Amino acid sequence: MTTGWHEVAAGVFQRRYEPCDVTVTAVVGARGVAVVDTRCSLEEGEEIKRDIASFASVPVRWVVNTHSHLDHTWGNVAFTAPYQQPPAQIWAHRSVPEVLTPDDPAVPFFLETFTDQGPEWQAKVAGLRIARPTHLVDRHSVIDLGDRTVELRWTGRAHTAGDLWVVVPDADVVVAGDLIEEAGDPIWGPDSFPFEWPATLDAALAFIGPDTVVVPGHGAPVDAAFVRAQRELIASVAERIRELHGAGVHLSEGPSAGGWPIPEDRTRYALARGYAHLDRLTASSTGSAR
Questions:
Q1: Which class does domain 6-223 fall in?
Q2: Spatial CB neighbours of 216, under 8 Å, sequence gap ≥ 6
Q3: pTM to 2 decimals?
Q4: 117-146 pLDDT, tens digit each
């Protein structure tokens, strides 16, 4: 098998790719392979296909995007015509096609984040060919791989509006995308929902058992205890935002106010998104009182 791929459960393979240390998961069934997330470009998607062909004798027939961010979706095009025949079905949450565009507010944020990865990012943007999902999930859908199924579940907004859990029931594997991070702290971007994220994880813990293998968007597989601990971290960030807002601390002073369970440089968008939400609630409440 190609170096770097690990069989985390029977017929379920994970590999961490650079740039971005992004995880790609391949679920092998009798009818074909379901690939979860596709990296950052056509070339990187093509590399995924070549790697999977080294250990799977069936074609990639399904692609699942756990969410819209560029390091998980810009490789989709490699699995569409004319680069693949027949093309794979591309699945995602219903909110993803609308924001899967170079104009999405999250794109500049991630491009800025990745500038230290090297000048090839400019080439990736210049050569971008976006392939949007055409098979859309509201709350729950099932893909039939022939001898096994893959379930796509949406339990609420969190890292983005459209984070999906990819569940492989017969292997007791859950692919989490960036709902869970192992390689570093969770990321709150300009499209995150800091106050809703803990409840989204609570709902998922109903189907994540003590022996479930949870594959994060970046990093090594984890277990339910790790998910619960990260849920508490995310909830504590939300609580700190509420405390600062309630104390009248200005948004610009929030990062340096102390009391954060995460590094100060990770708080920028968590604060911005949290303050905007609380400001809307305050305005709504004031308007209702008039």
A1: alpha beta
A2: 23, 176, 177, 178, 180, 181, 182, 183, 222
A3: 0.93
A4: 566 766 777 777 899 999 999 999 999 999
